[in-house]
Description:
This protein folds into two domains: about 5-25 and about 360-385; about 30-345, DD-peptidase/beta-lactamase superfamily (Beta-lactamase, 3-Layer(aba) Sandwich), CATH 3.40.710.10. Helices cover about 35% and strands about 15% of the residues. The chain contains twelve helices and 13 strands.
Amino acid sequence: MAIHQKYLIVFVPLLLTSLVIFPETSAIQSLASERDYWPNVSWRGVIPEVQGMNSSLLEAFWNLIRIDGNVQGFLVIRNGYLLYEGYGAGSSISHLWRIYSITKSVTAMAFGLALADGYVADVNETVLSYFPDRTIQNPDPRKSNMTIWHLLTMSSGLERSDFGMGTKPDWVQYLLDSPMDHEPGEFWNYNGGCSHLLSAIITETMGISMETLAYSRLFTPMGISNYEWGADPQGVSTGMAGLSLTLRDLAKLGYLFLNNGSWNGMQLIPAEWVTECTHPFFEFNYGEGYGYQWWIDIPINGYSMRGAGGMRLFVLPEQDLILAFGAAPYGSEDYYAFFDDFIYPAIIGDTVSLWNPTDELILPGLACALILSMVVVSLVLYWKRKPR
Length: 388
């Protein structure tokens, strides 16, 4: 069927403009099928320049961040290869780092398995329905409406009580008894108790600890054996903290997500669950978001696992890049500043820069102006060609 020329004059510019505003997303898709090896045993190391990064800048960056004694471990993985690795005093390749709240992101990984296997039917099921044999204190209609989705996104509405949880004889009961502060989903409120309840639901439905699930279904296929993971008095794996890993193994977990849950020909985690975990269900005014126990790093167009003291694992899909930082318990770093000063410049031939919040205002404005001007030009051309 032929399309009249006058419609092409008007709508082709609009189509071209839309391609500018809504770019192709295939660039950030997983390259799992193209990997030439998998680090089941260990990462293969190459000099940074082989994978398009500047070794001098990475060395300068490491020398800078270790001076204050806070960051004591650092490694860079690009295109599946270990490009740089550094350790400070008291740490090494085999050192087990207490990753603190990074454990929460691993909890989300394990919970995706319980969903995939059908032990948990849906994230919209209520939390209390998984504990039918418990008598819950502080009954509240809002608590009855609390769902798994609210736990995953830290929007349960529960009063934050995870700080005192460790002194209680039954952590799960203590959390379920906690009073409500808000309607579920109304506010984002960082609460480690949400993560521990997710671990408890895995145990309730599958009859095994989350550690056992993660070890058999994730750690073993990926070659992770050197780790420690704590549990509460009832044997429920600590969902909010308590896991210790080497930086190299921590990087493997990031690599699994970078490859959309695929590992060496096996789909360890459903790709859809990776997408859900890294979707910003809550966004904050400083350019960050929160998914399912994962942080969304809008300024760098990536996502991360975060732990106390500056423990970090960053995943940048567009650059096929993973950065792991091992830090002191009470330190902190402005990691975003590092990207513009060192990480991005170290990527040879790449002009990427840190996202600026004003970009969200400038780009739509320019796009609208471009569309309007092209439509006006198209209409003028049409009327000039119109038969008199």
